[in-house]
Amino acid sequence: TLSPKTVHNAATLLRTMFAARKGGSALRLGYIGHDPTIGLELPEQIKPEIVPPTKDRVWALISAARELGGMGYGATFLGAHTGVRRNELLALRFSDVDWFAKELRIRRAVSKTRGTDGAHKWEWREGPPKSKRSIRRIGLTESALAVISALKTGRSDEDLLFPRRAGI
User: Is residue 57 a contact partner of residue 76, using CB atoms and an 8 Å limit?
Assistant: First the structure.
């Protein structure tokens, strides 16, 4: 009744406990004579096919975000037109927009970490993106620039495009 992924996770945990190369595994500490996970047959993991939304569905989502109002429209529009990850989108500042080259510089991302203030279990921190290859420049269309321009009205270059309390 368990999914193949759950079985693989359990097997990985057992291999680590019984015979990990580093740390205090049962084999290294002498509690067992051999690794009992050797020869373990695991179920095949079938990864589901990812079907991206159609162009009509994307535009329906953008239209719905526009009707709801607020910053969600800008986030939805830019996410759909640039393909940036959500955590990268939420870390964007107006200084990341190269208006003349019509590009968006991805240099940081937000991530959820354990809270340190004693009151919150989690908090959001700004840091580097997912990997070194994630630091990149993305071309912007005129319509994407117009959306960013509308968000910038009355705000400085160091402001976030989508402030933390914007409701997205």
Answer: no
